[in-house]
Specification:
Oligomer: single chain
Number of strands: 14
CATH class of the largest domain: Alpha Beta
Number of helices: 9
Structural class: alpha/beta
Length: 323
C-alpha cells in the first residue's frame, strides 16, 4: 500500500538532530515544510503541518512543558526514538520510518479525524485536542440502553477524554448505533471505517467487520484482519491494545452483556496502570459480562450507568483541579 507524501514538521533539540531527521523523512518519500528547535518553541507558536516528527532527549523535566504543548495539538505526532549511534544506516532508518508512517496513517486522509464532516453534527468540524485519556466502553446484550444512559448523565464539561465503544453488534446496524449515540451526547461520534486521530470529547464505534489498531501516534485505524475468537468486535482485544499504548491513561467500563468478553484483559489493563469499572449486576439487562469482570478482582468501581457517569465526571474534575 503506497502512502502519499505527507508534509511534516520536524522538532528536535539541535540543528544537527533536525538535519538527521530531515534526511530520514526525505528518504522515506515525504516533505519537510518546517524545522523547529526545542528552544524556538518558547518564542513563537508551532507552524501548521500535516504531522510532526519529534525527537526529545527525555533525560530531565525540561521536556514536560513541550510534551504538554504537543498533546494539545490536533496533529499526529511520530516520536523518533531511534538512536543514531545504534542505527547508523540512514537507509534502514528511513525504511523503518516509512513503515511506521504507513502502518499508522494508511494515507493522509487518516489525519483529518477531528476535522472531518462525518458526524452529522454542526460542530463536527471543530478542532479538538488529542485525548489525554482513552476508555473502552464494552457491551453486549442490553449495552446500547446502558451506554446511552451513561452518556445522558455525563456532564458537558468533561474534557480530555475519548471513548472507544466496543459493542457486540451486526455490521448492518453499525450506522444506526452511531445515530442513536448522536442523540444522547454532545460529543462527536465516528464509525471506525478509516483512520482517526483520537481526540477529546469523541466516541469511536468499533466495527464488527474487522479489527482496529491503536498506535502510539494517537491514531485509531481499521485493520484488515477479522476478529479472533467468538466475539465480534472483541472487547478483550481492544482493551489489550489500548492498555499497551495508553497505560495508566487507559480505562474500561464493562456494561451489560452475555458471556465473558472483556474479563480476560481486565488484569492486563490493570497491570499497565489502567482503570477497570463495571456496571452493577443488578442494573444490567444481562449481568454475565460485568460479573465476569468483577470476578477478576481488579474492578475498582461498579454502579448503575447513571452512577458510573457521575463518578467518572467527578474523578475527571478532581484530576483537572489537581493541576
Amino acid at each position: 500500500m503506497k502512502v502519499q507524501a505527507i508534509k511534516f514538521g520536524l522538532l528536535a533539540a539541535t540543528p544537527t538532530e533536525l538535519a538527521d531527521i530531515q534526511r530520514m523523512v526525505v528518504r522515506a518519500g515525504h516533505i519537510v515544510v518546517a524545522s523547529v528547535t526545542v528552544e524556538a518553541t518558547k518564542l513563537k507558536p508551532l507552524p501548521e503541518v500535516e504531522a510532526w516528527v519529534v525527537r526529545l532527549g527525555g533525560e530531565d523535566d525540561t521536556d514536560e512543558p513541550l510534551i504538554d504543548l504537543l498533546d494539545c495539538l490536533s496533529t499526529p505526532i511520530i516520536y523518533d526514538d531511534l538512536e543514531v549511534e545504534t542505527t547508523p544506516n540512514i537507509d534502514e532508518r528511513s525504511r523503518r520510518f516509512a513503515a511506521k508512517v504507513q502502518q499508522c496513517c494508511a494515507d493522509v486522509s487518516g489525519f483529518v479525524g477531528v476535522r472531518e464532516q462525518s458526524s452529522d453534527r454542526s460542530n463536527s468540524s471543530d478542532v479538538k485536542r488529542r485525548a489525554q485519556e482513552v476508555w473502552v466502553l464494552g457491551a453486549s446484550t442490553g449495552g446500547p440502553e446502558a451506554v446511552t444512559a451513561f452518556l445522558d448523565c455525563l456532564p458537558k464539561g468533561v474534557t480530555g477524554v475519548a471513548f472507544i465503544y466496543v459493542q457486540h453488534i451486526n455490521s448492518e446496524i453499525s450506522d444506526t448505533l452511531r445515530k442513536v449515540l448522536v442523540r444522547h451526547t454532545s460529543w462527536q461520534v465516528f464509525n471506525c471505517e478509516k483512520a482517526h486521530l483520537i481526540a477529546e470529547q469523541s466516541i469511536y464505534i468499533v466495527s464488527p467487520a474487522n479489527q482496529v489498531s491503536i498506535h502510539d501516534t494517537g491514531i485509531l485505524a481499521p485493520h484488515p484482519d477479522a476478529w479472533l475468537g467468538p466475539y465480534s468486535p472483541s472487547i478483550d482485544q481492544v482493551m489489550a491494545k489500548l492498555a499497551r499504548v495508553y497505560g495508566h491513561s487507559s480505562g474500561a467500563i464493562i456494561f451489560s452483556g452475555m458471556g465473558d468478553d472483556g474479563s480476560k484483559s481486565c488484569a492486563y489493563m490493570h497491570h499497565y496502570g489502567g482503570t477497570v469499572w463495571a456496571q452493577s449486576p443488578l442494573s444490567c439487562t444481562v449481568d454475565s459480562m460485568p460479573v465476569s469482570a468483577i470476578n477478576t478482582g481488579v474492578v475498582s468501581y461498579q454502579g448503575s450507568p447513571e452512577n458510573l457517569a457521575k463518578r467518572f465526571a467527578h474523578e475527571r474534575h478532581s484530576k483537572q483541579a489537581a493541576f
